Amino acid sequence: MILGIIGLGRMGFGMSQRLLNHNHKVVAYNRSTDKVRAISKKGAIPSSSIPELISKLPSKKIIWLMLPAGKPTDQTIKTLIPLLSNGDIIIDGANDFYKNAEAHSKLCSKKGIHFFDIGVSGGTHGLKNGYTLMIGGPKQQFKYIEPTCKSLAPKGGYGYFGPTGSGHYVKSVHNIIEYVYLQGIAEGIELLDKKNINLKKAVSVWQPASVIKSWLLDLTSHALSKSDFNKIAPKIGSVTIQELNKTINSIPSHYTPAFDVATRVRKSKSGFILGKRTIAAIRNEFGGHAIEKGGKK
Ligand SMILES: NC(=O)c1ccc[n+]([C@@H]2O[C@H](COP(=O)([O-])OP(=O)(O)OC[C@H]3O[C@@H](n4cnc5c(N)ncnc54)[C@H](OP(=O)(O)O)[C@@H]3O)[C@@H](O)[C@H]2O)c1
After folding, report:
1. Catalytic residues
2. pTM exceeds 0.85, yes or no
3. Protein residue whose Cα sits closest to atom 20 of ligand 1
């Protein structure tokens, strides 16, 4: 298959590479040109503008956006619409609010363009392990993008969940669970430390077969074994909190006490230093999310 990818960040670059490894053709565009050059060295067809990317795709064009949610994604969709034709497909892989997908789909449909919202999980490890895909959009069109999804995902790791918005919705729920898991691990690390228990040892004993064994625990173990773990500042990036809160608040009589506490702790300016450091370190392990130096115990 051939498709266009816009956004060659930590996710889009790895996804392009995985598709190339699975014998797809990728036409790539990114705001900064260095990443376009880098992916073209791996076999992608480079483009220096969005119109150029469109011109290099055959009809029934498929374009996958891997950009930050909000303005960058919104503006790019609005740039694409006049350049595309009836039957073409736009896929949005950002961590966006599901109702934005509904709005984007409406805009696209005025020109007969089909819109898919696909939540992506797996972080920077997706290149090797596969990217989990949570898919929403027009069911009759899914067959056109399924070969791409199959190559990106690990075996059994993609699913079509229903009409537009379903993909972003399922991904938001995934991220809410992720917040709660990370808060749980962070609280455990804090409690172990209060009794001077060896953190690395406790985590490594839990890894092989305990009921809390998990990839996040494996990543915790990896983060703790780094010599500069204690230098990580207790600051946790929070770009997705707004989108997640919008999702939660759109559901009548929702009940999410654990997530509410997890977000409050992330935003708090003081206390829970080791716990916050642990969350920042794990996020860096799975998603390459930035960490700052300068933490004290
Ligand atoms: N990292 C993860 O673990 C992860 C996992 C699942 C989903 N996601 C989601 O995937 C999307 C991409 O994440 P990422 O981690 O790949 O981010 P990233 O590494 O920060 O890359 C962002 C990409 O978007 C481009 N970009 C940023 N602002 C732009 C703008 N105003 N106009 C045009 N292009 C712009 C950047 O271009 P430049 O190179 O020019 O800066 C870069 O290619 C986000 O929606 C994120 O929430 C991330």
Report:
1. 171, 178
2. yes
3. 9
